[in-house]
Amino acid sequence: MAPEVKHAELSKRAYHKIAMHASKYPASTVIGVLVGLPGSTCVVADVIPVAHLWTELSPMTETALALIDAHLQNKPDQVIGVYQVPARMDVKEPTHTTARLAKKIAQKSEHDALVLQVHGHMLLAPQLSSLSPFVKKAESDAPKALAAQAASVPTYADLLPSLEKNIADGHWKLLADFDDHLEDPALEWLENPVFT
To answer: Gene3D superfamilies per the record (predicted)?
Structure first.
């Protein structure tokens, strides 16, 4: 049995890509998949942006998850959860759809799914306050909230100046999610190699 999730540690790359996804679609709720290593501390090495249009658990989302699973098949990292950046600031908890997506991830894996509720208006705050972590068990309906301090970005202070500059310079235009890929199949959404 997998250990209970108590903490989430995001890499600089993961936080950066979440911020770019939210910046590209500020009027839309965006969702994506957390990729890394499960455990009592989930290490989120990367994220894969999934949607800004098809944010319901739909055939498009199912297709995206299948492609992500195939993409990660021979890699050490795995899908460990989901992130959501709501378009509305008053949304404080994962939506029903995001919870269902997390439940699907938990059911397919041997561990609980991490759910990060990201407060888009706080992504560039001086102190890391934009992440609200939750845990979704395969057998439960509602995600369980963790303490806000249970999510960290070890290099946050170093990341902030470059993140502010990249957003101001419009680097968010270079990020692609699965919805973008459906409109233009030439766009690389699984790796987003520009954000290494």
So the answer is: Cytidine Deaminase, domain 2
Q: What is the C-alpha to C-alpha distance for residues 34 and 79, in angstroms, rounded to an integer?
A: 6
Q: Which pLDDT score is estimated for 155?
A: 82
79 within a domain of the structure (yes/no): yes
Closest CA to 106 of 77, 85, 132, 135: 135
Any idea what the CATH number is for the domain that residue 22 is in? Answer: 3.40.140.10
Q: What is the 3-state secondary structure (H, E, C) of the chain?
A: CCCCCCEEEECHHHHHHHHHHHHHCCCCCEEEEEEEECCCEEEEEEEEEEECCCCCCCHHHHHHHHHHHHHHCCCCCEEEEEEEECCCCCCCCCCHHHHHHHHHHHHHCCCCEEEEEECHHHCCCCCCCCEEEEEECCCCCCCEECCHHHEECCCHHHHHHHHHHHHHCCHHHHCCCHHHHHHCCCCCCCCCCCCC
Asked if the structure places residue 193 within a domain, the reply is no
User: Domain tally for the chain?
Assistant: 1
Residue 148: predicted pLDDT:
80
Per-residue model confidence (pLDDT) at position 55: 67
Do the domain assignments include residue 191? Answer: no
Successive 10-residue mean pLDDT values, the chain, 196 residues: 83 95 96 94 96 80 94 95 94 89 90 94 88 89 87 88 94 96 96 87
Q: Please state whether the predicted TM-score (pTM) of the whole model is above 0.90.
A: yes
